[in-house]
């Protein structure tokens, strides 16, 4: 398929779509494009005022689909539990769960439960959320979980002896790479355990507020503009990964080419370190241990 665009995806009209971190950036653009196409979208966000404002902006351009905002703080596992209970109570189906929210290279910080915040938000919070929503995904025919990773995950490594940077000197880019590699390992582990679809997407280098903690990336958004993408274009891999028909387990879509930073979404291969089955299982066991969450039997 040459130069994929959202016009080529199957219609999501009537699908219930939950997108984490969707008040800004590629999550917002994905929510907007899903709504335009008639989907019923739940914006799962930490800041409810910003989430409601995002809904108002979307409503200025379309009246299709439905939109709702629900509070979700991935840095607090109790908030994850409360959000999931709300969704399970309010809805009888979940067609698409898009694990989009994330942090990129902030100063060292801790989640409520004490995890390093990039690992805690980018991976552990989403792991727990998926476990909570697993029953609803199981009962929805054709459901799918899509996780948003990064090319940083391709060069990342797991710090198995200290994944939460408690005794190791914190290096923000290495912590970010670990969290994004964890996204890839997680989706492979999920694919081996569930009957519904699982996919990955990476947005290349998209100009969003995700880079606010990186002076170099913020500067590069301007001076390297030919080599990066708008937030809207950066959301296209998410849309393709969420809607591409007949996908293989853990199918992966993203900008592909010399830089892998810009361009239309295409199928791509998992990072070498994400292809290690023993690491997939090791991360799954660690995630269960840290979050206390497990997939309920089918």
Descriptive report:
With 298 residues, this protein is of the alpha/beta class. The chain has a single domain (6-289), classed as 3-Layer(aba) Sandwich (Rossmann fold). Helix content is 41%, strand content 13%. It has ten helices and eight strands. It has an eight-stranded mixed beta sheet with strand order 3-2-1-4-5-6-7-8, sandwiched between helices. Strand 1, helix 1 and strand 2 form a beta-alpha-beta unit. Helix 4 runs parallel beside helix 6 and helix 4 packs across helix 10 (277-291). It is globular. The chain starts with 15 loop residues before the first strand and ends in a 7-residue tail after the last helix.
Structural class: alpha/beta
Query: Averaged pLDDT, please?
Result: 90
Number of helices: 10
CATH topology: Rossmann fold
CATH superfamily: NAD(P)-binding Rossmann-like Domain
Q: Hey, roughly how much beta strand do the residues contain?
A: 5-15%
The CATH architecture can be named as 3-Layer(aba) Sandwich
Largest sheet composition: 8 strands, mixed
Q: Kindly report the oligomeric state of this protein.
A: single chain
Overall, the morphology is globular
- End-to-end CA span: 35 Å
Widest β-sheet, arrangement of strands: 3-2-1-4-5-6-7-8
| Strand segment tally | 8
Instruction: Point out poorly predicted stretches.
Output: 211-226
The helix content, as a percent range, equals 40-55%
């Amino acid at each position: 398929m040459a130069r994929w665009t959202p016009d080529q995806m199957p219609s999501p009209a009537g699908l219930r779509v939950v997108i984490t971190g969707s008040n800004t950036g590629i999550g917002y653009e994905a929510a907007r494009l899903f709504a335009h196409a008639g989907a019923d979208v739940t914006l799962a966000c930490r800041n409810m005022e910003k989430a409601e404002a995002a809904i108002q902006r979307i409503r200025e351009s379309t009246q299709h689909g439905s939109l709702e905002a629900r509070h979700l703080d991935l840095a607090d596992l109790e908030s994850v539990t409360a959000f999931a209970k709300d969704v399970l109570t309010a809805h009888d189906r979940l067609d698409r769960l898009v694990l989009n929210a994330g942090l990129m290279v902030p100063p060292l910080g801790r989640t409520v439960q004490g995890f390093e915040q990039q690992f805690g938000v980018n991976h552990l919070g989403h792991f727990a959320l998926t476990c909570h929503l697993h029953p609803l995904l199981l009962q929805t025919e054709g459901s799918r979980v899509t996780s948003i990773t990064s090319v940083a995950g391709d060069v990342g490594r797991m710090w198995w002896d200290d994944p939460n940077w408690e005794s190791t000197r914190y290096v923000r880019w290495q912590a970010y790479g670990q969290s994004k590699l964890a996204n890839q390992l997680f989706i492979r582990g999920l694919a081996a355990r569930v009957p519904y679809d699982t996919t990955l997407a990476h947005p290349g280098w998209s100009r969003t507020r995700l880079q606010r903690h990186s002076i170099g990336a913020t500067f590069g958004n301007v001076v390297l503009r030919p080599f990066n993408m708008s937030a809207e274009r950066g959301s296209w891999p998410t849309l393709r990964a969420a809607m591409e028909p007949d996908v293989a387990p853990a199918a992966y879509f993203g900008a592909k080419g010399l830089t892998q930073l810009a361009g239309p979404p295409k199928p791509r291969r998992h990072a070498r370190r994400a292809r290690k089955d023993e690491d997939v299982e090791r991360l799954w066991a660690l995630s269960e241990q840290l979050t206390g969450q497990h997939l309920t039997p089918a």
